[in-house]
Design a protein that fits this description.
The chain is α+β, with helices and mostly antiparallel strands. Helix content is about 25%, strand content about 20%. The mean pLDDT is about 95. It binds dihydroflavine-adenine dinucleotide (FDA). The site of dihydroflavine-adenine dinucleotide has 37 residues, from α1, β4, β7, α8 and α10.
């Protein structure tokens, strides 16, 4: 059968894929990037590319008839989610029993929907989670490179102390200090100068117009404004949106054949075709990549894939919570967090908690946090032949260490501030939400399922290049680590395998 052939194929267009595609293109290697989500470059009827968080429409969610926001209720009332038309929207909530995983869908992957927090992990923790990676090289070369390429910046300190849009963060920081906790400014890929001009009324608003999680119309340097245009600019890289990879196999001659469905924005399958390649890079995210490999192993298509494929998955210890406050936090709250509570050095309750906004357009007298904790629990992926699906096994009890750590730290803050946790935000009366994660990590861990540079064990010219390489935890928001590791790995792969 006639099929297309391209030297290098990259599946997915998130952080790992974008960095990999750029370096392949620069090296003169013709590369195709296949992304199941759409290209977000065209305005809808309202003149905007992305919809607002306060009035979400079909653009918000990947093929559902109702939005599935992380904060699902206020005063136990179902006032946040909305009925919508099924569509190739930008945010997906992939449900696996007790755990659901939020991921971005579109050219740019998670960079389209995330809060932009760009944090380099503490070196000693990085050395602990990936001891076989040369930390000297990472901190001397690849972390600085990732920060530069992603356009990481910090807010002007004076403006941060005086602007209206971070009043919520300053109030929350004050309470942490009262409890004797350390706080830190969190770098971001959102352009803080642009945000300053938003507050001054000089430019169209995005972060200050409650935009986050369903995309930002301005200000954010997502991958479609950083790595990906540079990759395309090499003249060697093409990006194909609405192309969903179903399976792949290896031919006798060692090349790979990928089966890909082309869909439209309503989910209709327009056609299925095969694309051959010599070098195959899996960058479909922790869930996407692990699913493709587990299916390939357990259906016998790639039988030499080892037992480590599908293991070592974690939530980065994510747990969300809110506190009720007595003092005002501001009506306009920047959608991009800029301050965090850093209690990571605490040997008993290590927590790094971003102070998250409640961008409701009115002051709800509360403050929200996404806490990252050191949760040693790990999930694993299993192939289910009865419906040809791959399932993540994660039990609700595995979230308990995260809740325990967050409870200890926020109990301390509440004692100092005379405040309480909110228990009306997650659909029932729980104060801690640990049934979802924004930070899926692992499944094809570096040095276990792959060699020390992401080459999948057992198969030549097959690589993992995304968050599935990281063993379940980074201690901070993960995309800088994912990008830096991808930069490190592709440099070695280009030098040795091409
Ligand atoms: P990523 O998930 O980015 O990209 C994978 C891509 O592959 C997706 O575009 C997907 O559609 C595509 N794909 C999957 N399967 C496919 C298939 N079979 N065929 C074709 N394409 C396929 N992190 C951080 O550091 N700071 C932050 O502030 C935040 N905030 C945040 C908020 C929210 C709401 C979310 C959901 C996530 C965050 N994150 C974050 C997490 C961060 O976005 C995440 O860690 C990275 O995007 C992961 O990068 P990867 O390269 O692993 O894959």
């Amino acid at each position: 059968r006639q099929r297309d052939f391209v030297p290098a194929l990259v599946i997915g267009s998130g952080y790992g894929s974008a960095a990999t595609a750029l370096r392949l293109g620069e090296a003169g290697i013709r590369t195709q990037v296949l992304e199941m989500g759409r290209l977000w470059d065209t305005a809808g009827a309202d003149g905007k590319i992305f919809c607002s968080m306060l009035q979400p429409d079909h653009r918000s969610t990947w093929f559902q008839d109702r939005t599935e926001a992380p904060l699902s209720s206020v005063l136990w009332a179902d006032v946040i989610n909305r009925d919508i038309e099924p569509y190739a929207g930008v945010l997906d909530r992939v449900r696996h029993g007790d755990m659901s995983v939020y991921v971005g869908r579109g050219v740019g992957g998670g960079s389209l929907v995330n809060g932009g927090m760009a944090v380099t992990p503490q070196r000693d923790y990085f050395e602990e989670i990936l001891p076989s990676v040369d930390a000297g090289r990472m901190y001397g070369k690849y972390f600085p490179l990732a920060n530069r390429m992603l356009g990481v910046n910090t807010p002007d300190p004076e403006w941060l102390e005086t602007c209206d849009s971070y009043q919520y963060a300053r109030v929350s920081r004050g309470h942490a200090h009262d409890a004797g906790l350390h706080t830190t400014v969190v770098p971001n890929v959102y352009d803080f100068d642009y945000m300053r001009r938003e507050e001054a009324g000089e430019v169209p608003q995005s972060a200050l117009a409650s935009e986050v999680i369903y995309g930002n119309n301005h200000g954010k340097r997502s991958l479609d404004r950083s790595y990906l245009p540079e990759a395309i600019g090499t003249g060697n890289v093409t990006v194909h949106a609405l192309h969903r990879v179903r399976t792949f196999r290896q031919e006798q001659d060692g090349t790979y054949v990928v089966t890909v469905e082309q869909i439209d924005e309503l989910g209709n399958v327009l056609g299925t075709r095969e694309i051959g390649c010599r070098w195959l890079f899996l960058g479909a995210g922790s869930l996407g990549t692990t699913e493709l490999l587990v299916r390939a192993r357990d259906t016998g298509v790639l039988p030499r894939l080892g037992a480590a494929v599908g293991e070592g998955w974690g939530t980065n210890g994510n747990v969300m919570l809110g506190r009720a406050l007595a003092e005002p936090t501001g009506q306009i709250q920047s959608g991009m967090p800029a301050l965090g509570i850093n209690n990571w050095r605490d040997p008993k309750y290590p927590v790094f908690a971003e102070i998250a906004p409640v961008p409701a357009g009115l002051d709800l007298l509360m403050t929200l946090y996404l806490a990252i904790t050191r949760n040693p629990e790990r999930g694993r992926f299993r192939y289910l032949p009865e419906n040809d699906s791959v399932r993540l096994d994660w039990d609700i009890d595995q979230g308990a260490p995260s809740v325990e750590a967050a409870d200890a730290v926020f109990r301390r803050i509440n004692r100092a501030a005379g405040t309480e946790l909110r228990n009306d935000l997650f659909g029932d009366d729980r104060a801690f939400e640990n049934r979802f994660t924004y930070h899926p990590l692992g499944g094809c861990v570096l040095g276990e399922a792959t060699d020390l540079h992401g080459r999948v064990r057992g198969y030549r010219n097959l690589y993992v290049t995304d968050g599935s390489l990281i063993p379940g935890s980074t201690g901070v928001n993960p995309f800088v680590t994912i990008t830096a590791l991808a930069e490190r790995n592709i440099e070695r792969v280009l030098a040795e395998d091409f």
